[in-house]
Design brief:
This protein has 5 helices and no strands. With 113 residues, it is mainly alpha-helical. Helix 4 crosses helix 5. The longest helix is centred in the last third of the chain and has 32 residues. The chain is globular and about 35 Å long. It comes from Hoeflea olei.
Length: 113
């Protein structure tokens, strides 16, 4: 996905997710509540939580996760250096495939600025 238009990808994914939410409203409400609770400020600030989510997205090889969490990390003030360190931890935990998805995550971060 290195030539991805990450903003268009987010728009397309949001449209598909809206269709899915209509098809399974109860589960979607539950997932939304979980997401809200998980990302709320607490012992960890929202930026740290987004960096964790980005690292998990890298190791899980989830393109949508890269897009949404790179964008959110940027929104909460994550620097490019923090993104790079997050990618480093993901590579440590996930090996070569995480290196490939780490490159995608950095490209998403750079493109969504």
């Amino acid at each position: 996905m290195s030539e991805t238009d990450w903003n268009a990808f987010i728009d397309q994914t949001n449209a598909r997710m809206a269709t899915l939410r209509l098809a399974m409203p109860d589960q979607s409400k539950g997932f939304a509540a979980l997401a809200q609770a998980a990302t709320a400020p607490g012992a960890l600030d929202p930026k740290t939580k987004e960096l964790i989510a980005l690292a998990i997205g890298i190791t899980a090889r989830c393109d949508g996760c890269l897009a949404f969490h790179a964008k959110a990390a940027r929104k909460f003030g994550a620097t490019r250096e923090e993104i790079a360190e997050t990618i480093g931890v993901a590579v440590y935990m996930g090996g070569g495939p995480s290196m490939i998805y780490g490159a995608e995550a950095l490209a998403a971060y750079d493109a969504l600025g």
